[in-house]
Amino acid sequence: MKILIVAMSNSIHTARWISHISGQGWEIHLFPTDTFTSVHPGIKNVTVHSPRIIKFIINRYKLKKEDKTAQEDNFDVLMDNFINRSGQFLITSKELIKRIFPDLRAHRLAKVIKKIKPDIVHSMHIQAGGYLTFETKKRLHGKFPKWIVTNWGSELSLFSRISSQEDKIKEVLLNCDYFSGECKRDIGIVRRLGFKGKTLPVIPNSGGIDFNLIYRIRKPGPTSDRKNIVLKGYQNWAGRALTGLRAIERCADILKDYKILLYCVDTFEVMVSTELLKKNTGIKTQIIPVNTPHEEVLKHHGSARISIGLSITDAISTSLLEAMVMGSFPIQSNTSCASEWFKDGQTGILVNPEDPDEIEKAIRLAIADDNLVNKASELNYDMLFERIEKSKIKEQIIKTYKDINNNLL
Hints:
Elements: E1 2-7, H1 12-21, E2 27-32, E3 47-48, H2 52-60, H3 76-100, H4 104-116, E4 120-124, H5 125-140, E5 146-150, H6 163-175, E6 178-180, H7 184-192, E7 198-199, H8 211-217, E8 228-232, H9 241-250, E9 259-263, H10 268-281, E10 284-287, H11 294-302, E11 304-309, H12 318-325, E12 329-333, E13 349-351, H13 356-368, H14 370-388, H15 390-405
Parallel strand pairs: 1-2, 1-4, 2-3, 4-5, 5-6, 6-7, 8-9, 8-11, 9-10, 11-12, 12-13
């Protein structure tokens, strides 16, 4: 079987997904959705079709190939080195190429499809992979491989309601053969948008959870003994970390013995607000560096009584699942599909991401009720093991590809 994946090549989600299907004797190809992008170091045993201009630049600067994990392009170390040398040139060239050759990527993808003749094309992320694959399909006119589309994050729940994106999303859904999502909610959305194809099993884009790792790093003891609270630090078009900080400040009277840990902090505004929280209330705070290894972030969840994630739109949120499996009690936006993973008020609490009053009440409840957080920890762990243990997800993904290729779906 030949599978061509059209996705963000520097994404951990792409790397984890591909890791499930490598080693099957299949021929796996990856077409990066960005003209200039590095390959995640976790992506191995894959032919990566990077732009020729990148190959020219690499040859131009005589960068040695140090990473043999990608058969064709060895991109990770090379691009890091090149960006360090000429980052501004790279950015300028990227924008210039987009303006002069707006259809360059679709033209290149069409050539790749003609050359390798894949049995399946799998576009991950509708706006990145789906739009590009649709433009490519229009160019090829004739027979097109079986086409799977997977949405990531908030593409459907939010952008399908935005006028500039709605029609484009509909075009993708009307032209693909299969749809896979990580929320049951999204299955309903694509049907309302006109999708007539076949839906695949609901699977988290993260590719499941490695419970061997969790067993090794999760410390024993009840969640109620923990004295940390973890807050996802995104404050942008979707993230609402500042709302979370306001709610935490309102709970200062019960948090004197706690430390607030923020991860994924992406703005100076959040850094300043965190510092002010500490000075105004005396609550201990810590900002976890952005480049902190994934295992260390998991350990932080494993040290937390509560993990809070707030955004105006989301899908399942990988960080939510990771917090739950590490025993932290989740307080999560009601704009996600977290309701498909925990029982509100029992194994987690859903909140309005822009309402500090709601979030404050949820924090106070989770601090006051030891039995609530301890019971939730046990139930969430058992539920996640049954639903998304890594080997089970791998088996499901492999079966899905085989069934599609053999016309059983």
